[in-house]
Amino acid sequence: MLRAIQYIYVLRPVWAVLAALLVGAGLIAVAGVNPWDAYGALFGGAFLDYYGLASTLAKMSPILLAGLAVIVPLRVGLLNIGAEGQIYMGGLFSSMAALLLPEMSPYLQVPLCVLAGAVGGGFWGMIPGYLKAYRGVNEVIITILLNFIAINLVSYVAGGPMMQEGAPYPYSEEIREGLWLPYIMPQTDAHLGVLAGIVLCLAAWFVFRFTTVGFGLGMIGKNPTAATYAGIRVRRNVVAVMFVAGAIGGLAGTFEVLGLKHRLYHLFSPGYGFDGIVVAFLAQLSPLMAPIAAFFLSGLKVGGLIMQRAVGLESTVVEAIQGLVIIFVAVSLAFRFDRGNWRRFLERRRLLDAGLAQGVTNNSGGTS
Amino acid sequence: MSISRRSFCLLATATVLTGLGLSTPAFAENLKVAIVLPGVKTDKSFNQAGYEGVEHAAKELGLEFAYSEKVAQPDQPEALADYARRGYSVVIGHGGEFQDSVAKVASRFPDTKFVVVNGTEPGGNVAIMSFDFPALGYVMGYVAGKVSETGKGGYIGAQKLKFYVDLGNGYTKGFKAARPDGEVLTAWTNDWDDVAKGKEAALNEISQGADVIFPSMDNAVVGSLQGVKEKGKKAIGIYYDAISDWPDTVVQSAIFDMRGALLTTLTEAKEGRLEGKAYIYGLETPKATRIGTYHASVPAAVQDEAAAIIEKIKAGEIDVH
C-alpha cells in the first residue's frame, strides 16, 4: 500500500498535467470550441501525424538540450536561468564558424561549428559560474541578465556586420548545404539534434549514476561544506559545471542554426531556454526522464499551434493552457511523499477497521 | 490471414498518411486563403494590418480564410506547410522573415500559391508583395524639403532592412530635389516598438537642426511624433493618414495600405492570375500606396508641385532609387 502511494506521488506531474488539461477544457469551451475536438487536434496532430511528429521532434531538440542545461547545474545546486542566452551564443559562434571560416571539408567543418557553438555557450555559462564560485555573486541574477546581452548581441550581429546584403529581415547569409545537419525524417524539418540531445542525456545520467565525478557533484549539491571537507574542489567544480551547462545550451542553439534555420536569425529562439526550466522540473531533475518531459512539452507546443489552425482557437487560449500546465506541475511538486505520515495514516485506518470490526460485535464505534 | 490489432493500427496509420500525402489542394471554386502572422493580430501595427487586410479581402471577394498568429520563427515553415496540406490554395507569410521558410516549403506544394509580404525573391509558385517604398518616400521628401525652414530633414528607421533603407533613400532624394542644398540626417534605433527610443532619436535629430522628421518604425513612431510635437517641429506620418491623430505636427503621410494591397493581390488570385512574380504597389495603385491629407500650412503651390511629381514618377520620368 505504502509503495502504491509512493508511485502515485512519483507520477504527480502526470496528474498535474491532466488536471491542467481539464481546466483548459473549460477555457476552450468558453472560447466556443468543443474541447474534445480541440484536444483531439492537439494530441493527434502533435504525436500521431507524420508531419506533426516531425515538428515535435524538431522542437524537441532545443527544448531537450535546454532542459539538460538546467538539470545538470541544478543537481549541483546551481540555478541556470541563462540557457536562453547560452542558446543565442551557441547559435552565434557556430554560425560564425560556418560562415566566416575558409571553406573546408564538411567532415572537418561541421565538428568545428559544433565545437564553436559549444564553446560559445560554455563561455557564456562560465561567467556566472566564476562569479558565483569566486565572488559569491548570485548566479540567478547574472544568468538572467546575460540572456538580454546575448539576445541583443545576436540581433546586432544578424542585423549589422553579418547581415545579408539587401535582406528583408535581419539574418545572415545562408550556410552552405554541406554543413547542414542530416534530417532524420524525409521531407520534414526533424534533424539530428534531437538524437544528439538524447545521447547527451544518457551520458549525463551515466556520469551522475556511475562515476566519482558525478558523485562528487551530487555531494556539492547536497552539502557544499561536507563536499569541501571530503576534499572536493567545490569552486573549480562550480565553474566547470556551469561551463558544461552553458556548452549544452550552446549546442541547442548550434543545432537550431545548423539543423533548422541554416542562417543566423535575429530572435531565433522563442524562449527555449525557459522551456528548459519547465523540462527540468517535469523530469524532476532526472536526465533519463528529460527526453520524455521534453517530448511532451514540445508536443504540447506543436499541438497547440495545430489546434489553433484546426479549430480556430486564438493563440491566447493556447498559451493560457500551456501556462496552466506549467503552473499545475510546479504546484504539484510541492506535495512531497512523507513516508512517516502516510504510515501513521494507514496505521490509523487499520486500527479503525479493526475497531469497526469489533464494534459490529459489541455495538460500539471505534474512534481514533 | 487474420488482421491482428497491431497490424490494423499500422494499416490505419499508413492509410491516413497516404491520404494526407495524396490530398492535393483543390483549385478555383472556393478559394481558401491562409495568413501566418509572426505577432498578435491586435498589435495596432504590421500584424493587425495583415490580418484585417485578409479579413477584409475575404469578405469582399467571398473567400474562405484562416490565420495563425504569434507563430515563432522555428514554427513558421510547419505552419505554412500545414495550411498547404489542409488545402488552402493561397498561403501568405506576413513578413520578410518568411522568405526562406516559404522557399523551402513551396517546392513541396507546387499547386499552392505562396505570397511573402515584403519578400525579396519571387519565382515558381512564390509571389512577393510589397510597396514601392522609395517612390512615396521621394514624394514625402519633396514636401518635407519645401516645408523645412532649416534645410535639414530627419529620417528614423528601426533596422536597416532593405525596404526601410530604400524608403530613407527615396526621402533623402526627394528632399534634395526640393532643396539642392538640403541635408537629411538618418538614425537607426534598432527597435520597432520602444517609444522612448523613438522619441530620443527624434529629439537628437532636432537638436542637430532637423525640422521635418520622418519616422518609419512600428509603435516607436508614436514616441518620435511626441518628441517632434513637444519641440514644435514638423513630421511625416506613415502607414495611415496620421494627421488625424497629430493635427499640429504631421504635414503629410506616406500611406502604405496593407488592406488595399492584399485586396488587390487576392483579387488576382481569385481570378487565377496570381503568378510567381513581384507585386510591388506604387503610386499607380492608390488603393495600396498613396499620399494622405496635407497640413493647412503647406502652400497650395507646393501641393500642386507634389502632385506633378507623383505624375512624373508614375510616368517613369523621375528615378527615385
Largest sheet of chain A: none
The low-confidence runs of chain B, each spanning 5 or more residues with pLDDT under 50, are: 8-28
Number of helices of chain B: 10
What string gives the helices and strands of chain A in order?
A: HHHHHHHHHHHHHHH
Percent of sequence in beta strands of chain B: 15-25%
Classify the secondary structure makeup of chain A into a structural class.
Answer: mainly alpha
Helix content of chain B: 40-55%
Radius of gyration of chain A: 24 Å
| Unreliable residue stretches of chain A | none
**So how many helices of chain A?**
15
E-strand count of chain A: 0
Termini Cα gap of chain A: 21 Å
Q: How would you characterize this protein structure?
A:
Chain B: It is a lipid-anchor. Chain B: Residues 1-28 form the signal peptide. Chain B: Pfam families: Bmp. The complex is a heterodimer of chains A (368) and B (321). Chain A is mainly α and 368 residues long. Chain A has a domain at 60-299. Chain A is built from 15 helices and no strands. Chain A has helices spanning 2-10, 12-30, 35-48, 50-75, 83-100, 106-135, 139-159, 193-210, 212-222, 224-229, 234-261, 272-282, 290-311, 315-332, 339-362. Chain A is globular and about 95 Å long. Chain B is an alpha/beta fold and 321 residues long. Chain B folds into two domains: 21-131, Rossmann fold, CATH 3.40.50; 133-256 and 290-314, Rossmann fold (3-Layer(aba) Sandwich), CATH 3.40.50.2300. Chain B is built from ten helices and twelve strands. In chain B, helix 2 packs across helix 9, helix 3 (76-85) packs parallel to helix 4 and helix 5 runs parallel beside helix 6. In chain B, 54% of the residues are buried. Mean pLDDT of chain B is 88; it is low at 8-28. Chains A and B meet through helix 4, helix 7, helix 11 and helix 13 of A and helix 1 and helix 3 of B.
